[in-house]
Protein backbone atom coordinates (compact mmCIF):
# COMPACT_ATOMS: atom_id res chain seq x y z
CA UNK A 1 0.00 0.00 0.00
CA UNK A 2 1.36 3.39 -0.93
CA UNK A 3 0.51 6.97 -0.03
CA UNK A 4 -1.45 9.47 -2.12
CA UNK A 5 0.40 11.43 -4.82
CA UNK A 6 2.34 14.53 -3.76
CA UNK A 7 2.71 17.36 -6.27
CA UNK A 8 1.01 14.91 -8.60
CA UNK A 9 3.91 12.45 -8.15
CA UNK A 10 3.05 8.96 -6.96
CA UNK A 11 4.57 7.08 -4.04
CA UNK A 12 6.40 4.33 -5.93
CA UNK A 13 7.32 2.22 -2.91
CA UNK A 14 10.88 1.07 -2.10
CA UNK A 15 13.40 1.25 -4.90
CA UNK A 16 17.08 0.80 -5.66
CA UNK A 17 19.59 2.92 -7.58
CA UNK A 18 20.40 1.28 -10.92
CA UNK A 19 24.11 0.49 -11.23
CA UNK A 20 25.97 -1.13 -14.14
CA UNK A 21 27.18 -4.08 -12.06
CA UNK A 22 23.53 -5.09 -11.62
CA UNK A 23 22.51 -4.89 -15.28
CA UNK A 24 22.93 -8.60 -15.94
CA UNK A 25 21.03 -9.66 -12.83
CA UNK A 26 18.13 -7.31 -13.57
CA UNK A 27 17.91 -8.34 -17.21
CA UNK A 28 18.24 -12.06 -16.65
CA UNK A 29 16.67 -12.68 -13.23
CA UNK A 30 13.93 -10.06 -13.57
CA UNK A 31 13.55 -9.44 -9.83
CA UNK A 32 10.49 -7.62 -8.56
CA UNK A 33 11.56 -4.10 -7.60
CA UNK A 34 9.12 -1.27 -6.92
CA UNK A 35 11.17 1.23 -8.94
CA UNK A 36 14.66 2.02 -10.19
CA UNK A 37 16.47 5.31 -10.00
CA UNK A 38 18.96 6.04 -12.78
CA UNK A 39 21.86 8.49 -12.74
CA UNK A 40 20.58 10.66 -15.60
CA UNK A 41 24.05 11.69 -16.74
CA UNK A 42 25.07 8.10 -17.49
CA UNK A 43 22.46 7.84 -20.24
CA UNK A 44 22.33 11.34 -21.69
CA UNK A 45 25.26 11.23 -24.08
CA UNK A 46 24.95 7.64 -25.18
CA UNK A 47 23.23 6.22 -28.21
CA UNK A 48 24.42 2.74 -27.39
CA UNK A 49 24.26 -0.12 -24.96
CA UNK A 50 23.37 1.83 -21.79
CA UNK A 51 20.26 3.23 -23.48
CA UNK A 52 19.23 -0.17 -24.81
CA UNK A 53 19.45 -1.60 -21.30
CA UNK A 54 17.48 1.33 -19.92
CA UNK A 55 14.78 0.82 -22.55
CA UNK A 56 14.44 -2.81 -21.52
CA UNK A 57 14.33 -2.05 -17.80
CA UNK A 58 11.96 0.89 -18.25
CA UNK A 59 9.51 -1.46 -19.92
CA UNK A 60 9.36 -3.44 -16.68
CA UNK A 61 10.02 -1.00 -13.85
CA UNK A 62 8.96 2.55 -13.03
CA UNK A 63 12.00 4.81 -13.46
CA UNK A 64 12.97 8.03 -11.72
CA UNK A 65 15.88 10.18 -12.86
CA UNK A 66 18.53 11.51 -10.52
CA UNK A 67 21.20 13.80 -11.93
CA UNK A 68 24.48 15.18 -10.69
CA UNK A 69 25.33 17.85 -13.26
CA UNK A 70 22.43 20.27 -13.54
CA UNK A 71 24.47 22.61 -11.35
CA UNK A 72 21.33 24.44 -10.34
CA UNK A 73 23.24 26.80 -8.05
CA UNK A 74 25.91 27.81 -10.54
CA UNK A 75 26.24 31.43 -11.60
CA UNK A 76 27.23 30.26 -15.08
CA UNK A 77 24.47 30.40 -17.66
CA UNK A 78 22.03 27.50 -17.28
CA UNK A 79 23.08 24.73 -19.66
CA UNK A 80 19.94 24.55 -21.77
CA UNK A 81 21.32 21.75 -23.93
CA UNK A 82 21.71 19.71 -20.76
CA UNK A 83 18.11 20.51 -19.78
CA UNK A 84 16.88 19.49 -23.24
CA UNK A 85 18.77 16.20 -22.88
CA UNK A 86 17.10 15.66 -19.52
CA UNK A 87 13.68 16.18 -21.09
CA UNK A 88 14.46 13.80 -23.97
CA UNK A 89 15.67 11.10 -21.58
CA UNK A 90 12.70 11.63 -19.27
CA UNK A 91 10.33 11.18 -22.21
CA UNK A 92 12.20 8.15 -23.51
CA UNK A 93 12.18 6.19 -20.26
CA UNK A 94 8.89 7.71 -19.05
CA UNK A 95 10.59 8.74 -15.83
CA UNK A 96 8.15 9.73 -13.10
CA UNK A 97 10.28 12.71 -12.06
CA UNK A 98 13.67 14.32 -12.46
CA UNK A 99 15.84 15.22 -9.48
CA UNK A 100 19.21 16.85 -8.86
CA UNK A 101 21.07 18.40 -5.95
CA UNK A 102 21.04 21.73 -4.19
CA UNK A 103 24.62 22.60 -5.12
CA UNK A 104 26.82 23.85 -7.90
CA UNK A 105 29.13 21.47 -9.75
CA UNK A 106 30.96 24.01 -11.87
CA UNK A 107 31.44 27.67 -12.65
CA UNK A 108 33.53 29.80 -15.03
CA UNK A 109 33.24 27.10 -17.68
CA UNK A 110 34.86 24.50 -15.45
CA UNK A 111 33.22 21.44 -13.96
CA UNK A 112 34.31 19.67 -10.80
CA UNK A 113 31.79 16.82 -11.02
CA UNK A 114 31.45 17.25 -7.30
CA UNK A 115 28.44 18.56 -5.40
CA UNK A 116 29.84 21.82 -4.05
CA UNK A 117 27.94 23.57 -1.27
CA UNK A 118 26.25 26.93 -1.72
CA UNK A 119 26.11 29.86 0.67
CA UNK A 120 22.52 29.96 1.88
CA UNK A 121 21.86 33.64 1.23
CA UNK A 122 18.78 35.54 0.04
CA UNK A 123 20.60 36.36 -3.20
CA UNK A 124 21.42 32.68 -3.82
CA UNK A 125 17.81 31.81 -3.09
CA UNK A 126 16.49 34.20 -5.74
CA UNK A 127 19.12 33.09 -8.24
CA UNK A 128 18.38 29.38 -7.80
CA UNK A 129 14.61 29.87 -7.71
CA UNK A 130 14.80 31.53 -11.13
CA UNK A 131 16.80 28.65 -12.55
CA UNK A 132 14.45 26.04 -11.06
CA UNK A 133 11.50 27.81 -12.69
CA UNK A 134 13.28 27.69 -16.06
CA UNK A 135 13.97 23.96 -15.70
CA UNK A 136 10.40 23.30 -14.57
CA UNK A 137 9.09 25.17 -17.63
CA UNK A 138 11.18 22.86 -19.83
CA UNK A 139 10.11 19.75 -17.93
CA UNK A 140 6.48 20.78 -17.67
CA UNK A 141 6.67 19.29 -14.19
CA UNK A 142 8.18 20.01 -10.78
CA UNK A 143 11.93 19.60 -10.53
CA UNK A 144 12.86 17.62 -7.44
CA UNK A 145 15.76 18.99 -5.40
CA UNK A 146 17.89 16.94 -3.00
CA UNK A 147 19.65 18.20 0.11
CA UNK A 148 23.39 17.52 -0.29
CA UNK A 149 25.86 16.12 2.20
CA UNK A 150 28.16 18.94 3.29
CA UNK A 151 31.58 19.23 4.86
CA UNK A 152 32.07 23.00 5.07
CA UNK A 153 29.80 25.92 5.88
CA UNK A 154 29.89 29.40 4.36
CA UNK A 155 30.32 32.38 6.69
CA UNK A 156 28.02 34.28 4.35
CA UNK A 157 25.03 31.95 4.90
CA UNK A 158 22.00 33.78 6.24
CA UNK A 159 19.79 30.80 7.02
CA UNK A 160 20.09 27.09 7.71
CA UNK A 161 19.75 24.60 4.88
CA UNK A 162 16.23 23.48 5.82
CA UNK A 163 14.99 27.04 5.74
CA UNK A 164 16.67 27.62 2.38
CA UNK A 165 15.02 24.50 0.94
CA UNK A 166 11.69 25.42 2.42
CA UNK A 167 11.86 28.86 0.80
CA UNK A 168 12.88 27.32 -2.53
CA UNK A 169 9.86 25.03 -2.41
CA UNK A 170 7.58 27.95 -1.54
CA UNK A 171 8.96 30.16 -4.31
CA UNK A 172 9.01 27.55 -7.08
CA UNK A 173 6.68 24.71 -6.15
CA UNK A 174 9.57 22.30 -6.68
CA UNK A 175 9.65 18.88 -5.08
CA UNK A 176 12.06 17.79 -2.40
CA UNK A 177 14.13 14.62 -2.31
CA UNK A 178 15.04 14.34 1.33
CA UNK A 179 18.22 12.31 1.76
CA UNK A 180 18.06 11.33 5.40
CA UNK A 181 21.62 9.99 5.28
CA UNK A 182 22.76 13.41 4.06
CA UNK A 183 20.86 15.01 6.94
CA UNK A 184 22.76 12.73 9.32
CA UNK A 185 26.13 13.29 7.61
CA UNK A 186 25.75 17.07 7.43
CA UNK A 187 24.45 17.24 11.00
CA UNK A 188 27.60 15.48 12.22
CA UNK A 189 29.94 17.57 10.05
CA UNK A 190 28.32 20.97 10.34
CA UNK A 191 26.94 20.56 13.82
CA UNK A 192 23.18 20.90 13.81
CA UNK A 193 20.43 18.80 15.33
CA UNK A 194 18.79 16.47 12.78
CA UNK A 195 15.50 16.90 14.63
CA UNK A 196 15.68 20.64 14.09
CA UNK A 197 16.28 19.92 10.38
CA UNK A 198 13.24 17.63 10.19
CA UNK A 199 11.13 20.20 11.99
CA UNK A 200 11.92 22.71 9.24
CA UNK A 201 11.30 20.48 6.20
CA UNK A 202 8.39 21.54 3.95
CA UNK A 203 6.74 18.11 4.09
CA UNK A 204 4.04 18.57 1.44
CA UNK A 205 6.89 18.96 -1.10
CA UNK A 206 8.73 15.77 -0.17
CA UNK A 207 8.24 13.24 -2.97
CA UNK A 208 11.17 10.92 -2.31
CA UNK A 209 13.60 9.81 0.37
CA UNK A 210 17.17 8.63 -0.11
CA UNK A 211 18.93 6.31 2.28
CA UNK A 212 22.56 5.17 2.08
CA UNK A 213 25.54 4.05 4.07
CA UNK A 214 28.44 6.32 4.95
CA UNK A 215 31.91 6.19 6.47
CA UNK A 216 32.33 7.33 10.05
CA UNK A 217 35.81 8.76 10.51
CA UNK A 218 35.23 9.65 14.13
CA UNK A 219 35.60 13.42 13.94
CA UNK A 220 33.73 13.63 10.63
CA UNK A 221 31.52 11.52 8.38
CA UNK A 222 31.83 11.02 4.60
CA UNK A 223 28.93 10.19 2.34
CA UNK A 224 30.53 7.20 0.64
CA UNK A 225 27.48 5.06 -0.20
CA UNK A 226 29.55 1.94 0.40
CA UNK A 227 28.09 0.48 3.57
CA UNK A 228 24.73 -0.73 4.85
CA UNK A 229 22.49 1.94 6.34
CA UNK A 230 23.19 2.53 10.02
CA UNK A 231 20.55 2.42 12.70
CA UNK A 232 20.33 6.21 13.39
CA UNK A 233 19.66 6.81 9.68
CA UNK A 234 16.90 4.18 9.63
CA UNK A 235 15.43 5.91 12.65
CA UNK A 236 15.56 9.27 10.89
CA UNK A 237 13.85 7.73 7.86
CA UNK A 238 11.03 6.42 10.03
CA UNK A 239 10.54 9.82 11.63
CA UNK A 240 10.72 11.65 8.31
CA UNK A 241 8.37 9.23 6.58
CA UNK A 242 5.75 9.69 9.29
CA UNK A 243 6.04 13.47 9.13
CA UNK A 244 5.72 13.42 5.34
CA UNK A 245 2.68 11.19 5.28
CA UNK A 246 4.55 8.82 2.97
CA UNK A 247 6.74 9.04 -0.12
CA UNK A 248 9.00 6.82 -2.23
CA UNK A 249 12.12 5.46 -0.56
CA UNK A 250 15.33 4.65 -2.44
CA UNK A 251 18.63 3.08 -1.40
CA UNK A 252 21.86 4.35 -3.01
CA UNK A 253 24.91 2.08 -3.06
CA UNK A 254 27.78 3.33 -5.21
CA UNK A 255 31.04 1.74 -4.11
CA UNK A 256 32.00 -1.81 -3.10
CA UNK A 257 28.58 -2.70 -4.44
CA UNK A 258 27.26 -6.11 -3.31
CA UNK A 259 25.16 -8.37 -5.56
CA UNK A 260 21.71 -7.03 -6.39
CA UNK A 261 19.73 -9.30 -4.01
CA UNK A 262 21.83 -8.01 -1.11
CA UNK A 263 21.34 -4.37 -2.08
CA UNK A 264 17.62 -4.90 -2.60
CA UNK A 265 17.32 -6.68 0.76
CA UNK A 266 19.05 -3.71 2.41
CA UNK A 267 16.54 -1.35 0.79
CA UNK A 268 13.62 -3.48 1.95
CA UNK A 269 14.77 -3.13 5.55
CA UNK A 270 13.00 0.21 5.28
CA UNK A 271 9.81 -1.74 5.91
CA UNK A 272 10.91 -2.20 9.51
CA UNK A 273 10.81 1.52 10.19
CA UNK A 274 7.86 2.53 8.03
CA UNK A 275 4.33 2.58 9.39
CA UNK A 276 2.38 -0.63 9.12
CA UNK A 277 0.23 0.44 6.14
CA UNK A 278 3.39 0.92 3.97
CA UNK A 279 5.33 -2.04 5.33
CA UNK A 280 2.54 -4.42 4.38
CA UNK B 1 22.71 36.96 -10.86
CA UNK B 2 24.39 37.73 -7.56
CA UNK B 3 27.96 38.99 -7.91
CA UNK B 4 28.77 37.87 -4.38
CA UNK B 5 27.56 34.38 -5.20
CA UNK B 6 29.61 34.29 -8.41
CA UNK B 7 32.72 35.37 -6.53
CA UNK B 8 32.11 32.82 -3.80
CA UNK B 9 31.63 30.01 -6.31
CA UNK B 10 34.81 30.87 -8.20
CA UNK B 11 36.72 30.97 -4.94
CA UNK B 12 35.50 27.52 -3.92
CA UNK B 13 36.13 26.11 -7.38
CA UNK B 14 39.75 27.22 -7.16
CA UNK B 15 40.06 26.05 -3.57
CA UNK B 16 38.89 22.58 -4.61
CA UNK B 17 40.66 22.18 -7.95
CA UNK B 18 44.03 23.90 -7.57
CA UNK B 19 47.06 21.85 -6.69
CA UNK B 20 47.54 23.53 -3.32
CA UNK B 21 44.82 24.29 -0.80
CA UNK B 22 44.21 28.01 -0.22
CA UNK B 23 45.84 29.61 2.81
CA UNK B 24 43.06 32.09 3.39
CA UNK B 25 39.83 30.23 4.07
CA UNK B 26 37.97 32.96 5.96
CA UNK B 27 34.98 32.61 3.65
CA UNK B 28 34.29 29.25 5.31
CA UNK B 29 33.64 28.52 8.95
CA UNK B 30 31.05 27.67 11.53
CA UNK B 31 31.09 23.93 10.90
CA UNK B 32 32.05 21.36 13.50
CA UNK B 33 34.61 19.89 11.11
CA UNK B 34 37.75 22.05 10.79
CA UNK B 35 37.79 23.98 7.49
CA UNK B 36 40.98 22.32 6.25
CA UNK B 37 39.45 18.86 6.84
CA UNK B 38 36.16 19.76 5.17
CA UNK B 39 37.86 21.40 2.21
CA UNK B 40 40.22 18.44 1.98
CA UNK B 41 37.25 16.11 1.50
CA UNK B 42 36.08 18.11 -1.53
CA UNK B 43 39.63 18.40 -2.91
CA UNK B 44 40.17 14.67 -2.58
CA UNK B 45 36.75 13.80 -4.01
CA UNK B 46 37.39 16.00 -7.06
CA UNK B 47 40.68 14.30 -7.92
CA UNK B 48 39.70 10.75 -7.02
CA UNK B 49 36.45 10.90 -8.97
CA UNK B 50 38.27 11.99 -12.12
CA UNK B 51 41.09 9.48 -11.65
CA UNK B 52 38.52 6.69 -11.11
CA UNK B 53 36.70 7.78 -14.25
CA UNK B 54 39.91 7.56 -16.29
CA UNK B 55 40.76 4.20 -14.73
CA UNK B 56 37.32 2.90 -15.75
CA UNK B 57 37.95 3.94 -19.34
CA UNK B 58 41.59 2.77 -19.50
CA UNK B 59 41.97 -0.41 -17.42
CA UNK B 60 44.59 -2.03 -19.69
CA UNK B 61 46.65 1.16 -19.78
CA UNK B 62 46.48 1.27 -16.01
CA UNK B 63 47.77 -2.29 -15.88
CA UNK B 64 50.60 -1.47 -18.31
CA UNK B 65 51.72 1.61 -16.40
CA UNK B 66 51.02 0.39 -12.88
CA UNK B 67 48.60 2.08 -10.50
CA UNK B 68 51.01 4.74 -9.28
CA UNK B 69 52.21 5.85 -12.73
CA UNK B 70 48.66 5.80 -14.05
CA UNK B 71 47.49 8.00 -11.17
CA UNK B 72 50.37 10.37 -11.88
CA UNK B 73 49.41 10.50 -15.57
CA UNK B 74 45.78 11.08 -14.59
CA UNK B 75 46.82 13.94 -12.29
CA UNK B 76 48.71 15.53 -15.19
CA UNK B 77 45.64 15.19 -17.41
CA UNK B 78 43.40 16.75 -14.76
CA UNK B 79 45.80 19.67 -14.31
CA UNK B 80 46.43 20.28 -18.01
CA UNK B 81 42.94 19.55 -19.35
CA UNK B 82 40.44 19.96 -16.49
CA UNK B 83 36.85 18.92 -17.15
CA UNK B 84 34.47 21.41 -18.70
CA UNK B 85 31.64 19.17 -19.92
CA UNK B 86 28.49 18.75 -17.90
CA UNK B 87 28.91 15.00 -17.74
CA UNK B 88 31.94 12.80 -17.17
CA UNK B 89 31.22 10.58 -20.17
CA UNK B 90 33.62 12.43 -22.45
CA UNK B 91 36.33 13.18 -19.92
CA UNK B 92 38.32 10.09 -20.92
CA UNK B 93 39.01 11.63 -24.30
CA UNK B 94 41.25 14.13 -22.52
CA UNK B 95 43.73 11.45 -21.52
CA UNK B 96 44.08 10.53 -25.16
CA UNK B 97 44.55 14.19 -26.14
CA UNK B 98 47.15 14.58 -23.41
CA UNK B 99 49.14 11.54 -24.53
CA UNK B 100 49.08 12.81 -28.12
CA UNK B 101 50.53 16.13 -26.97
CA UNK B 102 52.93 14.57 -24.50
CA UNK B 103 54.03 11.19 -25.91
CA UNK B 104 56.85 11.06 -23.36
CA UNK B 105 54.43 11.41 -20.45
CA UNK B 106 54.86 7.71 -19.73
CA UNK B 107 57.84 5.40 -20.02
CA UNK B 108 55.91 3.38 -22.65
CA UNK B 109 55.56 6.22 -25.19
CA UNK B 110 53.84 5.04 -28.37
CA UNK B 111 52.55 1.82 -26.85
CA UNK B 112 50.74 3.72 -24.11
CA UNK B 113 49.22 6.06 -26.69
CA UNK B 114 48.08 3.26 -29.00
CA UNK B 115 46.66 1.20 -26.15
CA UNK B 116 44.79 4.30 -24.99
CA UNK B 117 43.47 4.78 -28.54
CA UNK B 118 42.15 1.21 -28.50
CA UNK B 119 40.52 1.59 -25.11
CA UNK B 120 38.86 4.88 -26.06
CA UNK B 121 37.63 3.25 -29.28
CA UNK B 122 36.00 0.58 -27.11
CA UNK B 123 34.31 3.25 -24.98
CA UNK B 124 33.03 5.01 -28.09
CA UNK B 125 31.76 1.75 -29.60
CA UNK B 126 29.81 0.95 -26.42
CA UNK B 127 28.00 4.27 -26.74
CA UNK B 128 27.43 4.05 -30.50
CA UNK B 129 24.07 2.99 -31.91
CA UNK B 130 23.58 -0.56 -33.05
CA UNK B 131 23.06 -1.22 -36.76
CA UNK B 132 22.23 -4.44 -38.51
CA UNK B 133 25.40 -5.89 -40.00
CA UNK B 134 25.51 -6.18 -43.78
CA UNK B 135 24.53 -9.58 -45.13
CA UNK B 136 27.14 -11.12 -47.46
CA UNK B 137 24.31 -11.98 -49.80
CA UNK B 138 23.89 -8.30 -50.63
CA UNK B 139 27.10 -8.45 -52.67
CA UNK B 140 25.55 -11.09 -54.92
CA UNK B 141 23.12 -8.57 -56.41
CA UNK B 142 25.91 -6.32 -57.69
CA UNK B 143 26.73 -6.69 -61.41
CA UNK B 144 30.38 -7.53 -62.07
CA UNK B 145 31.11 -4.32 -64.00
CA UNK B 146 29.76 -2.22 -61.11
CA UNK B 147 32.21 -3.45 -58.52
CA UNK B 148 34.73 -0.60 -58.86
CA UNK B 149 31.95 1.85 -57.99
CA UNK B 150 30.61 -0.11 -55.04
CA UNK B 151 30.53 1.89 -51.81
CA UNK B 152 29.95 0.63 -48.30
CA UNK B 153 28.41 2.29 -45.30
CA UNK B 154 30.35 1.72 -42.15
CA UNK B 155 28.69 0.38 -39.03
CA UNK B 156 28.14 3.36 -36.64
CA UNK B 157 30.18 1.65 -33.94
CA UNK B 158 33.15 0.72 -36.16
CA UNK B 159 36.49 2.01 -34.93
CA UNK B 160 39.83 1.12 -36.57
CA UNK B 161 43.07 1.53 -34.66
CA UNK B 162 46.30 1.18 -36.62
CA UNK B 163 49.39 0.55 -34.54
CA UNK B 164 52.98 -0.58 -34.88
CA UNK B 165 52.58 -2.51 -31.62
CA UNK B 166 50.38 -5.56 -30.98
CA UNK B 167 47.94 -3.61 -28.83
CA UNK B 168 45.22 -6.23 -29.14
CA UNK B 169 47.50 -8.75 -27.44
CA UNK B 170 47.98 -6.25 -24.61
CA UNK B 171 44.24 -5.81 -24.31
CA UNK B 172 43.78 -9.60 -24.25
CA UNK B 173 46.26 -9.81 -21.36
CA UNK B 174 44.08 -7.35 -19.46
CA UNK B 175 40.90 -9.33 -20.25
CA UNK B 176 42.55 -12.51 -18.97
CA UNK B 177 43.44 -10.71 -15.76
CA UNK B 178 47.17 -10.92 -16.53
CA UNK B 179 49.52 -7.98 -16.07
CA UNK B 180 49.82 -6.05 -19.34
CA UNK B 181 53.41 -6.10 -20.58
CA UNK B 182 55.19 -4.34 -23.41
CA UNK B 183 55.31 -6.70 -26.43
CA UNK B 184 57.71 -6.80 -29.36
CA UNK B 185 56.75 -4.42 -32.17
CA UNK B 186 54.34 -5.78 -34.78
CA UNK B 187 52.06 -3.71 -36.99
CA UNK B 188 48.34 -4.38 -36.97
CA UNK B 189 44.96 -2.75 -37.30
CA UNK B 190 42.41 -3.56 -34.62
CA UNK B 191 38.76 -3.19 -35.60
CA UNK B 192 36.15 -2.68 -32.88
CA UNK B 193 32.41 -2.96 -33.45
CA UNK B 194 29.37 -3.39 -31.24
CA UNK B 195 27.02 -6.17 -32.25
CA UNK B 196 23.85 -7.44 -30.56
CA UNK B 197 25.91 -10.15 -28.85
CA UNK B 198 28.36 -7.62 -27.46
CA UNK B 199 31.53 -5.76 -28.23
CA UNK B 200 33.81 -7.44 -30.80
CA UNK B 201 37.47 -6.92 -31.70
CA UNK B 202 39.41 -8.33 -34.63
CA UNK B 203 42.93 -7.88 -35.95
CA UNK B 204 43.62 -7.10 -39.59
CA UNK B 205 46.90 -6.61 -41.43
CA UNK B 206 47.90 -3.00 -42.12
CA UNK B 207 46.96 -3.31 -45.83
CA UNK B 208 43.60 -4.87 -44.96
CA UNK B 209 43.01 -2.20 -42.35
CA UNK B 210 43.79 0.55 -44.85
CA UNK B 211 41.24 -0.89 -47.29
CA UNK B 212 38.56 -1.19 -44.62
CA UNK B 213 39.26 2.35 -43.42
CA UNK B 214 38.88 3.77 -46.93
CA UNK B 215 35.70 1.80 -47.56
CA UNK B 216 34.35 2.95 -44.22
CA UNK B 217 34.91 6.53 -45.36
CA UNK B 218 32.68 5.87 -48.40
CA UNK B 219 35.48 5.66 -50.99
CA UNK B 220 34.44 3.48 -53.96
CA UNK B 221 35.93 0.01 -53.92
CA UNK B 222 38.06 0.45 -57.07
CA UNK B 223 39.76 3.59 -55.80
CA UNK B 224 40.12 2.23 -52.26
CA UNK B 225 41.84 -0.88 -53.59
CA UNK B 226 44.31 1.18 -55.65
CA UNK B 227 45.04 3.50 -52.69
CA UNK B 228 45.88 0.77 -50.20
CA UNK B 229 48.04 -1.38 -52.47
CA UNK B 230 46.29 -4.58 -51.43
CA UNK B 231 46.71 -7.61 -53.65
CA UNK B 232 43.44 -7.73 -55.67
CA UNK B 233 43.39 -11.50 -55.20
CA UNK B 234 42.98 -10.93 -51.47
CA UNK B 235 40.05 -8.56 -51.90
CA UNK B 236 37.30 -11.19 -51.69
CA UNK B 237 38.63 -12.60 -48.44
CA UNK B 238 39.06 -9.19 -46.82
CA UNK B 239 35.58 -8.06 -47.81
CA UNK B 240 34.10 -11.30 -46.51
CA UNK B 241 35.98 -11.11 -43.20
CA UNK B 242 35.22 -7.43 -42.65
CA UNK B 243 31.56 -7.92 -43.54
CA UNK B 244 31.19 -10.98 -41.34
CA UNK B 245 32.81 -9.11 -38.50
CA UNK B 246 30.25 -6.31 -38.84
CA UNK B 247 32.34 -3.45 -40.22
CA UNK B 248 29.62 -2.43 -42.66
CA UNK B 249 25.88 -1.90 -42.47
CA UNK B 250 24.97 -1.22 -46.13
CA UNK B 251 26.31 -1.66 -49.64
CA UNK B 252 25.55 0.64 -52.55
CA UNK B 253 26.03 -0.41 -56.16
CA UNK B 254 26.47 2.11 -58.94
CA UNK B 255 22.81 3.23 -58.74
CA UNK B 256 23.80 6.38 -56.92
The helix content of chain A, as a percent range, equals 40-55%
Could you describe the largest sheet of chain A, including whether it forms a barrel? 8 strands, parallel, barrel
**Approximate shape of chain A:** globular
Secondary-structure element pattern of chain B, one letter each? HHHHHHHEEHEEHHHE
How many structurally independent domains of chain A?
1
CATH top level class name of chain A: Alpha Beta
* Largest interface, C-beta closer than 8 angstroms, per-chain residues: A-B, 51 and 50 residues
Oligomer: heterodimer
Low-confidence stretches of chain B: none
**Name of the CATH architecture of chain A:** Alpha-Beta Barrel
Shape of chain B: elongated
pLDDT averaged residue by residue of chain A: 96
Structural class per helix/strand content of chain B?
Answer: mainly alpha
Quickly count the helices of chain A: 12
Tell me the CATH topology of the largest domain in chain B: Outer Surface Protein A, domain 3
CATH topology of chain A: TIM Barrel
| Overall radius of gyration of chain A | 18 Å
Unreliable stretches of chain A (pLDDT < 50, length at least 5) are none
Report the end-to-end length of chain A measured between terminal Cα atoms: 7 Å
Query: Which radius of gyration of chain B do the C-alpha atoms yield?
Result: 24 Å
Structural class of chain A: alpha/beta
Amino acid sequence: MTSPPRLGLADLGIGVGLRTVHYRHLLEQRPEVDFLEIISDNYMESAGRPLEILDELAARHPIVMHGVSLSIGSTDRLDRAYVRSLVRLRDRCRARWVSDHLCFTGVAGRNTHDLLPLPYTRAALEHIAGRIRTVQDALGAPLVIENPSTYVAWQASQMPEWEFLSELCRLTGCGLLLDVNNVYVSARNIGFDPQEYLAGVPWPHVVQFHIAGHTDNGDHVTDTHDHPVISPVWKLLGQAWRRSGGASVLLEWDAQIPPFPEVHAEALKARRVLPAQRAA
Amino acid sequence: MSTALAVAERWLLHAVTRQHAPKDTRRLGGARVPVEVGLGIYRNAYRSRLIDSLADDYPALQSLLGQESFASLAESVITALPPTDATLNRFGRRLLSYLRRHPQATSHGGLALDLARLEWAIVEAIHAPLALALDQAAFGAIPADSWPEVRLQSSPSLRLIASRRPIDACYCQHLRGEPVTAPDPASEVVAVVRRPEGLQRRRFTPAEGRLIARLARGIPLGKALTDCRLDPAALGGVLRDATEFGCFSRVFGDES
